[in-house]
């Protein structure tokens, strides 16, 4: 993770923000569900569930 490192030694990872949080925008539905199963933090689970809701087709 990027937390605790300075900018000079930090590897540039497009899936992490500057503070080490994961980016969810470019993940597909399968990747999001896998991330939801492996995650334990309630705040991040809510974030992932909202991202899944965006990907799911709207049923009338």
Main features:
mainly alpha; elongated; 0% strand; single chain; 60 residues; 2 helices
Can you tell me about this structure?
With 60 residues, this protein is an all-alpha fold. It is built from two helices and no strands. The protein is elongated and about 45 Å long.
Structural class: mainly alpha
Beginning-to-end CA distance, first to last residue: 41 Å
Number of H/I helices: 2
Proportion of strand residues: under 5%
Shape: elongated
Q: Tell me the radius of gyration.
A: 14 Å
Percent in helix: 40-55%
SSE topology:
Blueprint (H helix, E strand, L loop, with lengths): L28 H10 L3 H14 L5
Helix pairs in contact: 1-2
Compose a concise summary of this entry:
The chain is mainly α and 60 residues long.
């Amino acid at each position: 993770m990027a937390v605790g490192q300075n900018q000079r030694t930090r590897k540039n990872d497009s899936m992490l923000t500057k503070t080490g949080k994961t980016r969810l925008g470019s993940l597909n539905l399968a990747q999001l569900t896998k991330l939801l199963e492996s995650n334990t933090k309630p705040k991040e689970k809510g974030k992932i569930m909202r991202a899944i809701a965006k990907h799911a087709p709207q049923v009338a």
